[in-house]
């Protein structure tokens, strides 16, 4: 899969959470999300316990929670937010 690009999609929840982030935080997070298309499991990404395809990436005090689907090549952003709130299930 070398050279393959993953398509990036946001869940409804993640899109809403992303839009509500402060602009300076969005500017820091956006390049990290874009980079997942080339490297879906970058250095520093951690697998989320109890989940088969879920990972998290840190951006300061914020987290990007996402799933990697290798067939088709898809990154599904599940949630984006401050570390204190992003893991809560509602």
Order of helices and strands: EHHEEEE
Structural class: alpha+beta
How would you name the CATH homologous superfamily? RelE-like
For the termini, the CA-CA separation is: 36 Å
The profile of the biggest β sheet is: 5 strands, mixed
| Overall number of structural domains | 1
Strand content: 25-35%
CATH fold-level topology: YaeB-like fold
Largest sheet, spatial ordering of strands: 1-5-4-3-2
* Second-tier CATH architecture: 2-Layer Sandwich
Morphology call:
globular
Poorly predicted runs = none
Helix content: 10-25%
Q: So how many helices?
A: 2
**Computed CA radius of gyration, to the nearest angstrom:** 12 Å
Q: Would you report the number of β strands?
A: 5
- What is the average per-residue confidence, as pLDDT, rounded to a whole number? 93
What does the model show?
The chain contains two helices and five strands, in the order E-H-H-E-E-E-E. With 90 residues, it is an alpha+beta fold. It has a single domain (7-82), classed as RelE-like (YaeB-like fold, 2-Layer Sandwich). The chain has a five-stranded mixed beta sheet with strand order 1-5-4-3-2. A hairpin with a 4-residue loop joins strand 4 (62-69) and strand 5 (74-82). It is globular and about 35 Å long. 19% of the residues are buried. The mean pLDDT is 93.
